[in-house]
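Weekly puzzle thread! Below is a chain. First person to post its structure in token form gets bragging rights.
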Amino acid sequence: MRLRNLFIAVACAAFFTACSDPYKGVDPEIAAKAKANIATATPERAEELTKVLSDLKPEYREGMAYLYAYMPKHDIDTLPVALIKENIEYAYKAYETYPWVKELPKDIFYNEVLPYACVDETRDSWRPMFIEKFGPMAAASKDMRAAIDTVNKSIREAVDVVYNTKRKKPNQSPRESMEIHMASCTGLSILLIDAFRSVGIPARFAGTPMWVSREGNHNWVEVWLDGEWYVTEYLPEKLNYAWFMPRAGKADKNDKTTWIYATSYRPTDMLYPLVWNRKDTTVYGIDVTDRYIALYKSQQAEEGKGTPVAIKLFKKEGGEQSSADRIAADVKLINLNNDVVGQGKTAGPSQDMNDYLTIYAPVNGIFDVEYPAADGTLKRKRVNVEGATEVVVFAE
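Winning reply:
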């Protein structure tokens, strides 16, 4: 009996010791950073945050400590405890549900799946909502590549949000975008990243503060697959083949405003340039420009394209600055022998303002752009292609 009582006492002591040290089993470096960051909060808040860690399953604690270690000061001080706990529990639910998540390197899972936010958007509860929407799709996918493809193709219908420059602000959270059913490229990227992360697919924010052509900024998404980062976006064509690749691939390494950046939850030696919030110092970045330049050159070599002719179709003259005035319609590029050398559909009102149809002319010279007029007839506009050419046409 004494031996049995001694065993129970030892077991209880071990249990309470483990409970009293929420960092037991956590990587010492992560634990030290988490403790130091939590210590910047008030004593009451620090106690709240530590209790969240203590209440978690032991196998979840290192991931939670990682988030604490690099959490921005405003989140350490104000992020609702219920949201912190919900985020980590649903992230690990994905870990336990989808086979590809267990195969991820730990640093990728921690840095690109666990985070509760992409940039500086409003912090809200998106994991339960998104795992309900995208969880069944992921479960029916044979692997992560198939899951990426399914989420990409289903995102618009699932969340009912379209591109529109009349959105309330660029950095809308998922709920903010879904409430008004519209978002800019920034809000759409946040939606897609969170949809991916909800089912354990590593994703991060990417973009440029200014195209080298000085046509403005753009943001999109990168997903991690088979050890590499791939380019994608809301309503994509296919991985690494977004409409903006020709611009991204021409970034100027001598001009940081044209560089391509990706975000990192873990601090780096540079900030991600938030063009809507230039004073922000909480979102870290990585220079990925060289990868985009190399990828674009590789694609150009493979495809052997000719001279690019960018075509934009608007309802009427004077509406070139409004996404609502753009028309999605079939147009053709025709040579002087009346041969169709290229065709495609122009970008409509729900596509990014920087997105437009590009048709490649096989040689420089005189061509006609054929497009539908407002009355249903076909019109032509003659253009002289001498290198990269932009053509703006009006239905009226």
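Puzzle host: Confirmed. Bonus trivia for everyone else. The longest strand covers residues 218-225.
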